[in-house]
Each structure stands twice: as C-alpha cells, then as structure tokens.
C-alpha cells in the first residue's frame, strides 16, 4: 500500500442484510474503529448501519474498497452480544447479517440524543407575587433545571405562568442533557411480604442471582400463586448488584397491568420494548440500554436483541407461550434464545409458567434446570371448581352454542353481580360461509383457507393473509339471493347468542380485531377489572395473565377446538390454554367455577384440567414424546419450500430430499403439503428433518441445501429449527 493512501487498514463490517459473512471496508486515515463499533457504510446505492465485526479483514488492497463513512457516537455492540448474534445465526441457519438487523432496529439511536432547552432560576425577581408564582419559585428553588411543562406540572400551574416569569427574566434558558427514559427502580420501594412458600422460592432465585454464573430456574406455580411477586425479588437482587434486567412477556396488551405492578414494587415503571413503541422512544430505549443507564426493560421477544451493556438476569414469563416463536425471516424461539443469551453472558435466567412447556419440564426433571415450585394460590384465593359439560348430553338449543347448563350458571353469576368470561379462540362471527342453494364455500383466493365472516364490519376476511372482501348478498356461483349461511361460531356470534339470553347484561367482546388497537384493548381490560362489564366474550387475548377480581365463572365454548388438528403438540397447547383461561376465575376469595363444553369429556386433556392433576398429564405427554423420539428427546426441523407454481415448489422440495446426505441418525420425511398449503399466493411444501437428541441437524441441513438445486426465481426456502407444530 502506498504511503500516501488515505486508507490505512480494512475492517470487516456486518451489514443488516442476508449476507453470509461480514463485508470488508476501508478505514479512512484518522478514523478509529474496533470490533463492535456501529458504523455507517455504503451498500450498493444506499448507506446502512453495520457493526464492525471480529477477525481480520483478510489481505485485500484497501484502496479498492469502499470506505466506512462514519463511526456513530454510540456505545459499541459488546463482545457477548456479538457472540450471541453468531450463535443465533448458526443455530437458526439464518445469515448473521439478518440477526444483526434485529439488533440494529432503531436507526436514529446511533446518533447522540440531543440536549433539550430547560429553565433555571436566574436570580431575578417577578414584578408581583401570586400564589401560582410562589409555588413555581418554591419548586425551582432547588437549583435544578426544568422543562417548561415539567415545572408547570410539578407546581400544578398552567404553562402560561411559567412563560410570564420567563418574560420577566426570572428564568434563564439552559441546555439540559437527555433525561432517562425512566428513573432508576428503587429495590426497597415496597418490599412484598411473602408467604413462607414464596419466601423459599424467592430465596432460591436470589441465591442464583447473587452467586452469579449461568443457571436456568423453572419457576413452576399455579395461576395466582404469586410467581410475579417472587421473581420481582430476583429482579431486585440483580439490580442491587448493579446489573441490568430483561423481563420478557408474551403479549403487549398484557404489559400495561404488568407495568403497574412493577411500579407498585419498585416505584417506577420499567422501560417497554415492543413493535408498538413510537420511534422516538425506541431510539431512546435502545441507546440508554446500550449505555447501561436504563436498568430494566419489559418487552416482547424482540427485546432479546437489545444491546444491553451489563445484563445480569432474564425472566421469561409464561415461558410456554407460542408467542415467543418468531416465524418470519429469522425463525427463533425467544425462550430458548434467552437461555443461550444467559449462557454467553454467564448469568441466571428464570422461566416462569403455571403450565411449563414439555421441553422445560424434561430439562428440570433431568437436572439441567433447577425447579422452584409454588403449589398454592396466594391468600384465600382458591382455584376454581372445574367441570366438563358433555355436549352430547346437554346440547344447546337450536341456533345457540351455549349449553343450558352453562346458561344457567351465567344467570346465577349475573344475579350475584359477578362477572363471567366466555372463551372461544376464534375471531370474527363465523369461520365458514356457504350457500344453501349450491353449496358454494367462500375461500381465500390466495390461501388454502376459508374466509371468516366479520359481521360487525360486514366483511369476509382471510386470517392468514389478511385478504378482505365485502360479504355479498347473492352467491357468486349460483346467484341465489339471501341463501348464504354462517357455519360455526366466532366470538362475535357468541356475543349475539349472549344478547339473546341476557339482553340487559353489559357485554364486551375482546379480540385482536378490536377497533382502536392496543390502546383501546388496554382500556377495555381495565374496564373489566373495574367491574364495568358483566359478561366478557374473548379469544386467547383475555386468557393470559390478567387479574379480574370479580370474575367467578369461566365458560369455555369449545374446549375441543385446539385438539382437532393432527399435531402432536395439540394436547400440550390445549392443556396450557385451558389452564390459563380457567385460571382467570377466582382470583379473590369468592367461590368460582370453570365449565368446559366438550364432546369428548373423557379426553386426557379434559381429565387433567378438571382433576387438576397436571403431573399425570405431563408424565403421559413426556412418555409419548420419548416413545416417538419427538422433542425434547429427538430433534426436528422443518424446511418449507414455496413458490407461486405448485409444481415448482414441489419439484424443488423433492430435489432437496434426493440430495440429503447419508446419515444413520437423521431422517427426512416428505415433502408433503405444508399445514397451510397455499399462503398468500404461494404453494408450500414441507420436509421434516428428524434426528436424535445429539444429532447435528444444522450440519445435515446445510449440506442438504448446498447439494440441492440452486434457489432461483420465485422459489423460497425457509428453515425452521424446532418448529412449533410437527
Ligand atoms: P401468578 O403470576 O403466579 O399468576 P401473581 O404474581 O399474579 O400470580 O399473583 C396473584 C395475585 O396475588 C396478585 O394480585 C398479587 O398481587 C397477589 N399476591 C401474590 N403474592 C402476594 C404477596 N406475597 N403479597 C401480596 N399480594 C400477593
Ligand atoms: Zn388468504
């Protein structure tokens, strides 16, 4: 390299795109970069943010490279986080750049937060004193600088009072450094008085935190046993050691009540992280997490990819929840990746659930995870009395979906001024619409699924791709007018059913379709908790985590719903969901009841729910998985091949299978049509790769993809390690 070259060296930079490795860029003279630096680099015609990666750039002529444009003035992505990116990339078989992309999800955060103008007393006096002015001056006398609205709020006056004082020179303007997103939590703010059982559990978790080092604890406690109170003690212990804490929660709608509980314990709310966060807030949270100034984040699965400076504990609440699985671009399970993150960082992780996943149960049984158990509900809250309603013996009246037994109990609850919840995990009015004259069924034009009627909106909607059409008056096939019938119920139809029977009851329908989005949902949940509804009809959104003190009856409209598909995980999922739903009842001292409408009351899931014997249920599930070599006793991966043309997708999948390497411990099944064989205009075929517990599934799949035909044109191949359904 010639002496006068402005570029002295080269550096590898990982850019946020599907690149298999870091690209090499020149480092201009005088620029200082190290592994982890966040930099701006040219990529094709664009400028993107990337991470300076580890390793040598290789022997290249730096003069031929494009230079790094800028080093952002933000904390570097630390060593642990870079190892985490590598690990997730290798495990999920996603390009490392796509994992880095999940870390760099707050583009403006890389520039320093601007300072903002504030006010400070100048020493001048106002022309005359009023009560309002006195209050302002008393508060500002502390010598701190204030924002205009912050000062007005603290003094309880309107901003115009502040403006008046400023006009008279009582205040001077100063620039203030950025404020923290939230103040530091106070671990001694309101220490909970734990029951002896809870104390034992909390002590065990706190001991792990204080000892430091990697350790997974499964916090296994029935709904309402106080798991949150218990893991808050572990959070406090980590904070006292000066470490940062991440709490993962499965649903955003849930977080609001959670934030308040956190505030009751620690005096401030934790920072939130999820896709509904306004961009400005995202940037501030990202930056302050990286700086280490923000101590606690409560977030959705994507929070796992925040670049914590000094993370010392992760809690995964409702660890069994399917919402932790991302099935888009990078396919990962946040629960499992949280364990990996903790392993890399050398700190403990707590997995909390009333109905742990079979995987975590087995890990605890085999001693890889510690198990901390809470066996009783807190205080006088008793678990609801649970019964099945055999729908063959007590069928609903014609046109209704509610058994007379359920209606009778609802009537009693209504008379007592208490609340009922009817649970049906199906959005909309009816899952199928057909023509009574010709039998035409309304299907999605681009998916292999029926359109769901949403009567409130007058539309037919595909729940997979979002395709929407107006519900016609006449059948599009035979033209007959007014012969379209709705088949089966969704929550909207159950609401109609309820209105028929209890016209004066106050009802609320809750599903993700609710107009007004998350904000409105939060308001409705608060309204229910306050008692502003008599009967709530909801999907799984209401099943999770909420505390409704006056709810004494939970009716499951179709307890068999989740069991119908042939998925080996169906029983586990149904058990978890039904346990959670029925757990909404009886959270205070009142007597409560859970009723499950079913056509198969003898099914092991129903038996486990009503007997409360989850141990027997898990023992059977685990034995079955062991017998069939399914996870966690064996390993599974799905490979989905999709294309607009059916033959193209199928042909590619077949060719992949033919090119699978020889292995005695790994089998390839398929290709078969994927569970949703047409999605968004793409035909989908699936190969299932089934290995033993210690098989190198990733190595096998990599070899198979490398040996198979090139992915061209419109074909897409997605690898899903540890698929949700199998
Ligand atoms: P879980 O997460 O196991 O379902 P929670 O932590 O939500 O249970 O506790 C259920 C209810 O009992 C909550 O309202 C909680 O505030 C209350 N609770 C639990 N333990 C205590 C305690 N030690 N002191 C006061 N309230 C408690
Ligand atoms: Zn569709």
Automatic annotation (TrEMBL):
* Amino acids binding Zn(2+) 2: 444, 447, 462, 465
User: Which metal ions or organic cofactors does this protein require, according to UniProt?
Assistant: Zn(2+)
Question: Gene3D superfamilies per the record?
Answer: P-loop containing nucleotide triphosphate hydrolases, PriA, 3(prime) DNA-binding domain
Question: Which Pfam families does the record cross-reference, listed alphabetically?
Answer: DEAD, PriA_3primeBD, PriA_C, Zn_ribbon_PriA
Xref: PROSITE patterns: HELICASE_ATP_BIND_1 (PS51192)
Record domain Helicase ATP-binding: where: 208-374
Write out the function statement from the record: Initiates the restart of stalled replication forks, which reloads the replicative helicase on sites other than the origin of replication. Recognizes and binds to abandoned replication forks and remodels them to uncover a helicase loading site. Promotes assembly of the primosome at these replication forks.
Q: What is this protein called?
A: Replication restart protein PriA
Record field: catalytic activity? Couples ATP hydrolysis with the unwinding of duplex DNA by translocating in the 3'-5' direction; ATP + H2O = ADP + phosphate + H(+)
Q: Quote the record's cofactor note.
A: Binds 2 zinc ions per subunit.
Q: What class of enzyme is it?
A: isomerase
Family indicated by similarity: Belongs to the helicase family. PriA subfamily.
HAMAP family membership: PriA (MF_00983)
Q: How does it assemble?
A: Component of the replication restart primosome.
């Amino acid at each position: 390299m010639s002496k006068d070259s402005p570029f002295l060296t080269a550096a590898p930079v990982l850019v946020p795109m599907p690149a298999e490795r870091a690209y090499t860029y020149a480092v201009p003279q005088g620029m200082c970069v190290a592994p982890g630096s966040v930099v701006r680099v040219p990529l094709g015609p664009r400028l993107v943010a990337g991470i300076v990666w580890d390793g040598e750039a290789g022997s290249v002529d730096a003069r031929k490279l494009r230079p790094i444009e800028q080093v952002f003035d933000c904390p570097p992505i630390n060593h642990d986080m870079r190892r985490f990116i590598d690990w997730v990339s290798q495990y999920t078989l996603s390009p490392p750049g796509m994992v880095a992309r999940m870390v760099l999800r707050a583009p403006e955060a890389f520039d320093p937060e601007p300072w903002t103008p504030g006010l400070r007393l100048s020493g001048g006096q106002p022309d005359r004193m009023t009560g309002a002015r006195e209050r302002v001056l008393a508060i500002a006398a502390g010598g701190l600088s204030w924002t205009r609205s912050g000062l007005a709020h603290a003094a309880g006056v309107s901003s115009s009072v502040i403006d008046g004082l400023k006009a008279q020179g009582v205040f001077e303007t100063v620039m203030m450094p950025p404020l923290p997103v939230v103040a530091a939590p106070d671990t001694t703010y309101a220490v909970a008085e734990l029951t002896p059982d809870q104390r034992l559990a909390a002590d065990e978790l706190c001991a792990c935190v204080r000892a430091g080092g990697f350790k997974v604890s499964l916090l296994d406690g029935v709904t309402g046993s106080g798991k949150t109170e218990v893991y808050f003690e572990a959070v406090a212990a980590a904070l006292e050691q000066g470490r940062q804490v991440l709490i993962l929660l499965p649903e955003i709608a849930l977080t609001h009540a959670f934030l308040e509980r956190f505030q009751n314990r620690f005096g401030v709310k934790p920072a939130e992280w999820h896709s509904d966060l306004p961009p400005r807030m995202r940037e501030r949270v990202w930056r302050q997490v990286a700086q280490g100034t923000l101590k606690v984040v409560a977030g959705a699965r994507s929070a796992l990819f925040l670049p914590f400076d000094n993370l010392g504990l992760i809690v995964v609440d409702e660890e069994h929840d399917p919402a932790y699985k991302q099935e888009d671009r990078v396919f990962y399970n946040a629960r499992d990746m949280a364990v990996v993150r903790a392993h890399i960082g050398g700190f403990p992780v707590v997995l909390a659930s009333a109905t742990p996943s079979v995987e975590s149960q087995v890990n605890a049984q085999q001693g890889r995870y510690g198990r901390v158990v809470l066996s009783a509900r807190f205080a006088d809250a008793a678990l609801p009395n649970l019964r099945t309603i055999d729908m063959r013996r007590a069928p609903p009246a014609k046109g209704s979906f509610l058994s007379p037994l359920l209606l009778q109990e609802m009537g009693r609850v209504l008379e007592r001024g208490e609340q009922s919840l009817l649970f049906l995990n199906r959005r909309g009015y009816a899952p199928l619409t057909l023509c009574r004259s010709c039998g035409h069924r309304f299907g999605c034009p681009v998916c292999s699924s029926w359109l769901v009627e949403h009567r409130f909106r007058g539309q037919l909607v595909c729940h997979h791709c979002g395709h929407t059409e107006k519900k016609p008056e006449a059948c599009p096939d035979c033209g007959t007018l007014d012969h379209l019938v709705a088949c089966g119920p969704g929550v909207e139809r159950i609401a109609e059913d309820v209105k028929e029977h209890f016209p004066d009851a106050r009802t609320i329908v809750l599903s993700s379709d609710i107009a007004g989005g998350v904000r409105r949902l939060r308001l409705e949940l608060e309204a229910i908790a306050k008692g502003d509804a008599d009967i709530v009809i909801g999907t799984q959104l209401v099943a999770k985590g909420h505390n409704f003190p006056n709810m004494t009856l939970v009716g499951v409209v179709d307890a068999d719903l989740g069991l119908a598909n042939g998925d080996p995980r169906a029983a586990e999922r149904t058990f978890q969901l039904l346990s959670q739903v029925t757990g909404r009842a009886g959270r205070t001292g009142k007597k409560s009841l859970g009723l499950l409408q079913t056509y198969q009351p003898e099914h092991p899931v129903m038996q486990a729910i009503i007997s409360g014997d989850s141990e027997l249920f898990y023992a059977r599930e685990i034995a079955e998985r062991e017998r069939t070599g399914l996870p966690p006793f064996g390993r599974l991966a799905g490979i989905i091949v999709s294309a607009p043309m059916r033959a193209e997708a199928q042909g590619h999948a077949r060719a992949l299978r033919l090119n699978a390497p020889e292995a005695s411990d790994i089998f390839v099944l398929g290709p078969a049509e994927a569970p949703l064989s047409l999605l968004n205009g793409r035909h989908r075929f699936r190969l299932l790769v089934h290995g033993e517990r210690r098989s190198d599934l990733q190595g096998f799949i990599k070899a198979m993809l490398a040996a198979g035909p090139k992915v061209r044109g419109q074909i897409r191949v997605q690898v899903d390690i540890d698929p949700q359904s199998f």
